[in-house]
Amino acid sequence: MTVLTLAKALNEGLRAAMDADPKVLIMGEDVGKLGGVFRVTDGLQKDFGEDRVIDTPLAESGIIGTAIGLAIRGYRPVCEIQFDGFVFPAADQIITQLAKMPLRSLGKLKLPVVVRIPCGGGIGAVEHHSESPEAYFTHTAGLRVVACSNPVDAYTMIQDAVRSDDPIVFFEPKRRYWDKADVELGAPGLPLGKAKVVRTGNDVTLLAYGPMVKTCLESAAAAEDDGRSVEVIDLRSLSPLDMGVITESVNRTGRCVVVHEAPVFTGLGGELAARISEACFFRLESPVLRVGGFSTPYPPSRLEDHYLPDLDRVLDAVDRVLAY
Amino acid sequence: MTASTTGLTAPPELVQLLTPEGERIEHPDYKIDLTAEEVKALYRDLVLVRRIDLEAVALQRQGELGLWASLLGQEAAQVGSGRALTDVDMAFPTYREHGVAWCRGVDPINLLGLFRGVNHGGWDPAEHNFHLYSIVIGTQTLHAVGYAMGIQRDGAEAATIVYFGDGATSQGDVNEAFIWASVFNAPVVFFCQNNQWAISEPLEKQSRIPLYKRASGFGFPGVRVDGNDVFACLAVTRKALADARAGQGPTMVEAFTYRMGAHTTSDDPTRYRVADELEAWKLKDPIERVKAYLFRGELADQEFFDKVEAEADALGKELRRSCLALPDPAPEALFDHVYAEPHALMADEREQYLSYLAGFER
């Protein structure tokens, strides 16, 4: 076991992926000498060379578009988008090309491209550096969308993502980059598409992913002091959803709260609530509630504590589902 | 401000090896030595490609295709550049490159699938080294550059060619592709068919300078070629591809041509351009000049031309037959190939929908 931060766990995972397959490339802005603005690719260019760890021009559409071309040629590019709010120049290539080209080719082309995006707020950043754009991508057929929440998952999920033959948008919770955990290097993890019960409970199910998993675990611990038994599920895969784990839990607890940083309106929580109401209708004791960002652009950082779901807002929702 | 104030007043240079009258001329930088058989083969390509296009337009008019993007007038640009490619080179087309597809050995019926609506692209790109048609303008230029970067990493001696139009040069992706190709010295030829019109917008809406001159700003050579001259298109593209394969990086080729038909079968060019313009370009027809050259040099007899015509008729007839015989895809094809690996939601939706459909059969 090695104690690693989430950023370092991703770094070790990428290193393992590059060791395992010479076709794996890393590309993005500042990923080479600098090692990425969050140091996720630190040292990789030194060890694997400039042909495999490519400092690109400052052009996000170019990063994804050329990654597609490299994938057609047989490579497995891992692209870094520097910040969530900078993915939109690449949205066209991701949505119209990366997601759709395998179908367009009737399966003859595979595009094993990973798009890594540091996401979410809570770091006091300027505009465009704190967003949660996952719903744009979960709404796009042809993409898989995953989010890691902790160093152990980060290490294995990034390797699984690189191995997948499907294009994957990989969200990394930037405010948790410095969280530490024991990671067993070389050990496999839970398969990429699987959700995980990270705390068991009987009264309420909390569904979360990425940065909100830790918030939900803290909320569940606090709820326990009030005699409430709260289960927490880390979705890990946002598209497709692992509905089996989710419905098993909600059928047991009868109550569910979905928590994400992204705006509630037409966010992933809406999809989860709808699917849970279909699958668990006769077992539900209350409506599925959602806790998330407001229907506003991400605020200036002095206001982000009001915007981001925190322990109190999660517990407030737990109170409300239990009041039914 | 006008162009004259920017110092960009030098008149555009045009590489031409065969005049519209069918007269062979020399160019100091682009030599080509074609045998009679080679010229006849190019003529055959041009005629057959035009016939495929004509048949497809007719099929659309008769309701058998939802849409067709005609290449009428651009045959020489496509056949010249297409025949410059070797087997190891890779081509990335727009949705109008039926002539290049022909040169790459793609059965024309496979092009029709997309326009009939039975698929979004029905050929194997690797089998022909001819990528699928790209409809979102300019996106394919980045794919081509990425592919070329892969060629570099493989240590292979091959090149990539990417097709796009005058309108596409305004796209961010195309400009990003120029930058990437330049800084990575990627083995790619940017083949721009300037057909003068981006649907209804003339070139002046896209550029204040001749398009080929943009290349120098990105740090690689640009050349304008008579896009209706199949010899010149062949010679110029061959040189650009050879340079790319030899590690000399990208070249931009601007094939100066004319879209003699509508943008697509849904378009009505009479709303935005004058008939005189078309008439003037008809005099520069890409096929007539090769025919004149063959006649002039007594390189081909009437029997040859009749034979090509008969072959075109047969090709058109066969294309029509196979188009009408294209089967509609089965409903479950909706869910095929969306993902390469098993996907729970796809499996669920497929099962539910097929079960719903089966309810009608009881």
From TrEMBL, chain A:
Q: What is this protein called?
A: 2-oxoisovalerate dehydrogenase subunit beta
Q: Where is the Transketolase-like pyrimidine-binding domain?
A: 4-179
Q: Which UniProt keywords apply?
A: Oxidoreductase, Thiamine pyrophosphate
Any one Pfam family here would be: Transket_pyr
List the cofactors.
thiamine diphosphate
Q: Which GO terms describe its molecular function?
A: magnesium ion binding; oxidoreductase activity
Q: Does the keyword Oxidoreductase apply?
A: yes
Kindly indicate whether the keyword Manganese belongs to this entry: no
Automatic annotation (TrEMBL), chain B:
Q: Does the keyword Oxidoreductase apply?
A: yes
- Organism of this sequence: Acrocarpospora macrocephala
The cross-references to Gene3D superfamilies, in alphabetical order and at most eight, read: 3.40.50.970
**What Pfam families would the database entry show?**
E1_dh
What is the recorded name of this protein?
Pyruvate dehydrogenase E1 component subunit alpha
Q: Which cofactor(s) does the record list? A: thiamine diphosphate
GO BP, sorted A to Z: branched-chain amino acid catabolic process
Q: Where is the Dehydrogenase E1 component domain?
A: 47-314
Alphabetical list of SUPFAM superfamilies matching this protein:
Thiamin diphosphate-binding fold (THDP-binding)
Could you cite one Gene Ontology molecular function of this protein? oxidoreductase activity, acting on the aldehyde or oxo group of donors, disulfide as acceptor
Which interval of the chain is the signal sequence?
none
Q: Which UniProt keywords apply?
A: Oxidoreductase, Pyruvate, Thiamine pyrophosphate
